[in-house]
């Protein structure tokens, strides 16, 4: 999975913390084909961190925001929100496919000469 980090008002983000954050999002690599994750992290004046995550796979795009005192806790909140969005989109796609299959079956089984009221 491709993970890009952008940070503002932070001197540097250590490699260990980048690896820990990327590991939290590794489940999306199994759920989607070729996912790309972009994480924007900035430190506010009061010392809290604001993280925004963009998940892209093909033509689908998902977004989540979180504000907390630690970057890892922000990453957990974003991961949970993105997982909810991805599963909702997947279920919606499955439901539409099922409805389409039902309507096709209905059209094939109903006789053209039948009179329906």
Structure description:
With 117 residues, the chain is of the alpha+beta class. It has a single domain (2-109), classed as Double Stranded RNA Binding Domain (2-Layer Sandwich), CATH 3.30.160. Helix content is 46%, strand content 28%. It has helices at 15-24, 27-31, 71-109; strands at 2-8, 36-43, 49-57, 60-68. A four-stranded mixed beta sheet has the order 1-2-3-4, covered by helices on one side. Strand 3 and strand 4 (60-68) form a beta hairpin. The termini are far apart. The relative contact order is 0.14.
List the helices and strands and how they pair.
Elements: E1 2-8, H1 15-24, H2 27-31, E2 36-43, E3 49-57, E4 60-68, H3 71-109
Helix pairs in contact: 1-3
> What is the average of the pLDDT values?
88
Named at the architecture level, the CATH assignment is 2-Layer Sandwich
Query: Helix and strand string, N-terminal first?
Result: EHHEEEH
The CATH top-level class label: Alpha Beta
């Amino acid at each position: 999975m491709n993970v890009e980090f952008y940070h503002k008002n932070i001197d540097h983000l250590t490699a260990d913390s980048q690896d820990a954050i990327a590991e939290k999002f590794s489940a999306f690599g199994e759920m989607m084909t070729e996912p790309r994750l972009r994480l924007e992290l900035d430190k506010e004046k009061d010392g809290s961190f604001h993280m925004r995550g963009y998940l892209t796979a093909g033509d689908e795009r998902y977004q989540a925001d979180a504000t907390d005192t630690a970057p890892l806790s922000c990453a957990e909140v974003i991961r949970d929100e993105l997982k909810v969005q991805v599963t909702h989109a997947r279920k919606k796609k499955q439901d539409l496919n099922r409805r389409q299959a039902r309507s096709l079956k209905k059209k094939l089984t109903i006789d053209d000469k039948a009179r329906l009221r």
